[in-house]
Design goal:
Shape: flat
Number of helices: 15
GO cellular component, one term: cytoplasm
Family: Belongs to the MGMT family.
CATH architecture of the largest domain: Orthogonal Bundle
Structural class: alpha/beta
Subcellular location: Cytoplasm
Strand order of the largest sheet: 3-1-2-4
EC number: 2.1.1.63
Oligomer: single chain
Largest sheet: 4 strands, mixed
Order of helices and strands: HEEEHEHHHHHHHEEEHEHHEHHEH
Strand content: 5-15%
Bound molecules: zinc ion
Radius of gyration: 23 Å
CATH class of the largest domain: Mainly Alpha
CATH superfamily of the largest domain: Homeodomain-like
Protein name: Methylated-DNA--protein-cysteine methyltransferase
Helix content: 40-55%
Number of domains: 4
CATH topology of the largest domain: Arc Repressor Mutant, subunit A
Mean pLDDT: 82
Length: 364
């Protein structure tokens, strides 16, 4: 296996800041010697001259070298975190999820309705009003399932009429109030990580999806799981999502090397077998497609193993990032090659620093 670099090359990093490449978020930070300020790669401030920049893998290192955080791109906030200017609005939505918001209400909070709309569109691939609506529907479905009657659910969830409630349920959940009681909606939320936000989805029977939420992919990911599980997807929280967020956080703090989450694997028997073998690759180690195929007693299936690996819906938890080519080269990763590099490097560093030696898995 080739050595893995902590950082991309200086040329790659400089190119990323010139292009304001958001995919490099979390991979490195750029500091400007002449101003004493450090930024995220995607900062909208004027691009510094090449001879004036210095690169760091973490914000902590940039600070240790005496740099201050840029006030434009806020490099100390987790990538993809809710921006400070939206905190107040989110708190109000949480306190009163049924409130209807007009542009005037937003302006009273000192917010630009256009900016709010754009943020929700970018982060959730839906309008602000659609976001509020799916949240409200999610709460209503919860109430129905816990035994509350239709009328009090409808009016208690901010609907002005029973027919309006029925229409919304049919549109968003594809159900009547009676069948909505039995439905098992999939809730979705974002989980923040140093490598950017992840999108998690799951419900009563387990986690259905955990992927890096690259913006252009979000809408497709939603459609994919909704089709696969034949269930509506609602923005909201669920115990499985809280568990997932906790365990992912522990992973990124270097405190967790494996996961104890109920996964809804729902795949073909071949895919499921491949995913089970992925779970058996120890933290900090790698295996090749060929090795996996051999472990599956199907040595000619390396290519099919590669495809099943790509179909894995549980980034990090089912560690498809630990699969490399037989010559040791890293190869494609749905979450982006730089994330794969970062994860392998992180696990390797962590294995060394804790002195933990994972057990090798069978003969090579
Ligand atoms: Zn900046």
């Amino acid at each position: 296996m080739n050595a893995i670099m902590t950082l991309p090359t200086e040329a790659q990093m400089y190119k990323a800041i010139v292009q304001r490449d958001a995919r490099m978020e979390g991979v490195f930070f750029v500091a400007v010697k002449t101003t004493g300020i450090f930024c995220r790669p995607g900062c909208k401030a004027k691009t510094p001259k090449r001879e004036n920049v210095e690169f760091f893998a973490t914000s902590a290192e940039a600070q240790a070298a005496g740099y201050r955080a840029c006030r434009r791109c806020h490099p100390l906030e987790l990538s993809g975190a809710t921006p400070v200017w939206l905190n107040d609005l989110f708190q109000r939505i949480k306190d009163d999820p049924n409130r209807r918001w007009t542009n005037g209400d937003l302006e009273l909070l000192g917010l630009s309705p256009t900016r709010v709309r754009r943020w929700f569109q970018e982060q959730y691939q839906m309008t602000f009003h659609a976001y509020l609506r799916t949240q409200r529907i999610g709460l209503a479905v919860d109430r129905l399932r816990s035994g509350e009657d239709v009328t009090s659910t409808a009016f208690g969830s901010g609907f002005e009429s029973l027919s309006g409630f029925r229409d919304s349920l049919r549109k968003w959940v594809g159900e009547t109030p009676t069948s909505a009681k039995q439905t098992e909606p999939i809730f979705t939320t974002r989980i923040l990580t140093p490598l950017g936000p992840m999108l998690a989805a799951g419900g009563d029977s387990g986690l259905c999806l955990l992927e890096f939420a690259d913006r252009k992919m979000l809408a497709k990911q939603f459609q994919r799981i909704s089709r696969l599980f034949q269930q509506p997807i609602l923005v909201g929280s669920h115990e499985i999502l809280n568990q997932t967020a906790r365990q992912i956080q522990q992973y990124f703090q270097g405190e967790r090397t494996s996961f104890t989450l109920t996964l809804r694997m729902d795949g073909t028997s071949f895919q499921t077998a491949v995913w089970q073998h992925l779970l058996a690759i120890p933290y900090g180690q790698t295996a090749s497609y060929r090795q996996l195929a051999e472990r599956l007693k199907n040595p000619t299936a390396a290519r099919a193993v590669g495809r099943a690996n790509g179909d894995n819906r549980f980034a990090i938890v089912v560690p498809c990032h630990r699969v490399v080519r037989s010559d040791g080269h890293l190869c494609g990763y749905a979450g982006g090659l730089w994330r794969k590099k970062w994860l392998l490097n992180w696990e390797r560093q962590h294995t060394n620093s804790t002195g933990q030696i994972p057990l090798p898995l069978g003969p090579p």
